[in-house]
Amino acid sequence: MDEADRQLLRRYRVQLVSELQVASLWDALLNRELFTPRMIEDIQRAGSGSRHDQARQLIIDLETRGSQALPLFISCLEDTGQNSLASLLRTRSQAAQRDPEAVRPRDLMPVVVGPMGLKPEELRTVKWDPGKLTPVVLGPEELCPATLRPEVLRPEVPRPGDIGSGGIRDVRAQETLMSNVDLAYVMNADPCGYCLIINNVSFCPKSRLQIRTGSNIDCEKLQRRFRLLHFTVEAKCNLSAKQMVQALGELSRRDHGALDCCVVVILSHGCQASHLQFPGAVYGTDGCPVSIERIVNIFNGTSCPSLGGKPKLFFIQACGGEQKDHGFEVVSTYPEDRILGSNTESDAAPFQDDPGHCDQPDAVSSLPTPSDIFVSYSTFPGFVSWRDPKRGSWYIETLDGIFEQWAHSEDLQSLLLRVANAVSEKGIYKQIPGCFNFLRKKLFFKT
Question: Is the four-CA dihedral 404, 408, 413, 414 of positive or negative sign?
Fold first, then answer.
């Protein structure tokens, strides 16, 4: 969908959700092929299934349905007698075409943070040194603290920086930490656990998703890496959304009683998705999305009791959305990485001619309070993830290299901090991996 149309829907979302009569729209949406029957069913099940929740999900999902989604939706409104909403969207859309700035979101402005602990009246008497002030851009987490994920309180353990500098004391501290079952997960089984890699490279023509050239390189690296980490590795290629869910379900139903861990890796095109705890979705080869939340939910304590109390790790190489991060100016410590942007591709899932646009939500899955779950994303939610056709994705290439060098001595969180730092320095367009961590202990791989 065109960005101006997308911003228009978001600007009037509250009014649309309040006034939209969805019951009369389903047939019109199907007739104009805006949604498939399965997508309509997912929208109807959204939230509590109320008109309000269905309308909200419909407006969110509409953003993903291609460059003609808005005019087709307006026609559906007219077909069902909802002329006031149709007129509103048509008028505002025409105005936006004449003046794109009218619907463009305002840029966040830097906020200068002064000395901490000073009262407002004291700030007026402080002599400011402009050279020492740090501009801070308030992002979604600062503006919406209620959406922050919960932190699990852990016993105090040595910091990653305190471990692994090479001294005998460091080695002993590391060995003590790894052997303490109160501080670190037990990872003594051999094999340690199952590792399932789903590698979607080619997609059906109707999906308009491009071939993910270079993904087989990622898959080969990961198979080798997790075998070296004592996992039983199984790779499945080019699965539809239904086949993905079936493969994940089959893995969750296995007996993991004698194993210590489970790993799931998804290599595919991705998109944004409505969610409660885990954002994003990945596409099957049929162009249908499977939400990350649904994938994680397959392995919760109810569905997979033999993994209860054991770490379940998910690595997602896919786009989190369509935004391209230009970064900000710094002195590059890796000059050679500045040229990497010329031949890279993104794992965004296009629904129109511009290959950078995607985000098709899946139905919201409810998830019990998660524990022992770790979800690592190749990119920050809302942004694209880059892949080199000849070398594979930035994220997987870096992950493999970091694990090779440091997995014998550092825990999972420390390893992924290294990955995030290395990936963030690549390319002209920028990328920053991130994670949702609900582990209760440190996790050290068996090497």
Answer: negative
User: What is the per-residue pLDDT across 83-120, written as a single tens digit (0 to 9) for each?
Assistant: 999 999 998 888 877 766 555 544 445 544 455 445 55
* Residue length of the chain: 447
Q: Which of 282, 287, 295, 265 is nearest to 392 (CA)?
A: 265
Active site residues: 269, 319
Q: How far apart are CA 147 and CA 297, in angstroms?
A: 19
CB atoms within 10 A of CB 410: 22
CA atoms within 13 A on the CB side of 156: 1
Query: Cα(71)–Cα(65) distance, rounded to whole angstroms?
Result: 11
Cβ neighbours of residue 390 closer than 8 Å, sequence gap 6 or more: 214, 217, 343
- On whether the pTM is more than 0.85, the answer is no
- Using CA atoms, how far residue 30 sits from 34, 40, 73, 114, in Å, is 6, 8, 11, 56
Report pLDDT digits (tens) over 33-52.
888 888 888 888 877 778 98
